[in-house]
C-alpha cells in the first residue's frame, strides 16, 4: 500500500515544494534553489525506487528491505520540509509564514491517509514535519505565533491519532479482504473438487478408475474425428475378456473379484502408452483404443498384455492366476466406425475364447460368419426337439468274433435340409445348458430302442454318451434310475460313456454318483481315452468298466499307435477293465487290434452309424449270418 500510493504523494510534494520555493523569492533565493534541488533529487530517487518496486516479482515485492527504503525516502522528504521551516523562518513574511504552515499541515494531513499502512512511519513523519515549526513559533514573543505553535502541536497529536485509526481501519479492511479472498479461494477449491468428483462419477468406473462405457465412447469419437481429418493414420481396438473370472466370484467372493479387477486395470495401465484409451466395458471385459494400425506392433502389444495379465495375483491369503483372451480390430483395415470396430473385436475375442496357447486373434470375415452361424444355430436349437429335428442313430460295437454286442446311440440334427455336425451343435447345447434336457431325451430314446433290440437279443447293450454338464445335474442319477425302471431293462445293459474331462472334477461327487448307478448295474465307459486328463488311480478308484481307445491312436496303429494300444491292454489286465477300440476303418487295423487281444471294436469298417430301422435290420441280418 505504501508504494502503491507513493507516486501521487511524490507529485504533490514536488508541486508544493516548487510553489513554495519560487513564489517567495524576495530573499535567500539561492538557498531556496539549493533546498529545492535537494528535495527534487530525493523525490527523483523515490520515483526510481517506486518504479523498481512495481517491476519486481510478487515474491520480490514482499521483502522487508522495500519497507526500509520507502521509510528512508519518506522521512528524508519530511526532514527537508522541516529544514525549510527552520532555515528560512527568520526571513518569512506573514504571507510566506501562512503558506508554509498551510503546506506543512496539508503534507501532514495527506500523510495520515497515504502512510496509514505503517503507523510508526506516519507518526514520525507528522512529528518531523510539524513539531519543529510548532516549537519555533511557540518560542516567539507574538501571541498569535504562540497560538499557532500550540495549534501545530495539537494538530500533530490529532494527526497521530487519526493515523492510528486509519491504520486500524486498514488492517481490518485487509483482514476482511484476506478472509473474503480465502473464502472465495476455498469455495473455488470446493467447487473444483466437487466438479472433479462429478466428472469421476459420470466418466470413470468406480472400481478400476478407467473410463466407463459412456465416457469411453465419447472419447473415441474424438479419435475417430482425428482419423477422418488425417491427423492419425489409424488405430486398433482391443477387446479383452478374462478367462475363468466368474469362478473367482463364485468361489472366493465378490471382494476377491473386485481386487482382481483393480489389479488387472493397473497392469493394463503399465502395459500401455499414456494416450491409450482404456475402458472397463462391463464385468470382466475391458476395451483399449491404441493409436497404432501396424499388425506387427499390435501383435507385440497384445502378447505383452496377455503375458502381464497371466502373472500370479496375490490376494493376501492365496494366489490365483488368470488368462485373458484378446480380440483385435483395426482401422481402417476392418472398418472406420469405432462402434463397428468394437463389435468386430468382440467377435474376434469370442472366436478365440478358450483356445490355447494363442490368446489373441485379429478379426476376419470368417470369424463373423462363424459367429452368425453359431447364433443362428443356437436359436434354432431352442425348438429343435419340439420340431422333431433331433434323432438318434446307432453304431454297432462288435466282439473279436465279429458278433454285435452293443450299439452306441449318437445324436443327429437335421436342420433346414442339412445335417448339422455334432461337433458343431453339441458345444452349443452345453454352453446354453440345454444339454441336460436333450441328454435326458437321448437317454430315454436309447433305452426305448434297447427294449426293441432285446426282443430278439436279450443280452445286447446300449451305450449312451453323457455330457459333463448333464452328469453334474442334481437329478441325473434319479433320471437314469427312473428310465431303467420305466423301460424295465436290466441295469447292466445300459453303458454310460463319459469323457476324460470328468476326472478333472470333484472326485468325491463323481465317485458317489458312479457308485450309486453301478449299484443298479449300470456300466461306465471312458470315451476318447488318451486325449485328455488320464489318471489310472482315479480309473481304478471309480471302478470303470470299459475304456475306449481314441480313434487317433487306431489311425496310427501301424506306427507308434500300436505301442499305445498294447500298453492299454496291459493296463486293462491289472486294473480290471475291458477295452474297446473305436475308429476302426481298415482290415489291417482290425487284424492288428485282434493280434493285440482287443476284445471289442467299433468303426466304419464294421458299420457307419445307422438310422433306427436300419440298425434293427442290420442286427437281424447279423444274427442270420451267425446261425
UniProtKB/TrEMBL annotation:
Give one GO term, molecular function aspect.
lyase activity
The alphabetical list of record keywords is:
Lyase, Membrane, Transmembrane, Transmembrane helix
Q: Does the keyword Zinc apply?
A: no
- Read off the Pfam families from this record: EAL, GGDEF
Domain annotation GGDEF: ranges: 233-365
What the entry lists under SUPFAM superfamilies is as follows:
EAL domain-like, Nucleotide cyclase
* UniProt xrefs under PROSITE patterns: EAL, GGDEF
Membrane as UniProt keyword: yes
Cite the source lineage: Bacteria, Pseudomonadati, Pseudomonadota, Gammaproteobacteria, Enterobacterales
State the EC number(s). Answer: 4.6.-.-
Q: Which SMART domains match?
A: EAL (SM00052), GGDEF (SM00267)
Q: Which residues form the EAL domain?
A: 374-623
Q: Where are the transmembrane segments?
A: 33-54, 66-90, 102-125, 146-164
Record's protein name? Diguanylate cyclase/phosphodiesterase
